[in-house]
Amino acid sequence: MGKNRVFQECPNDPGERSRLWVYKDIDKVLRKNKGTKAIQAMDIRASFARQQYRTTLDRNKAFSKVEVH
Question: How many domains are there within the chain?
Answer without folding.
Answer: 1
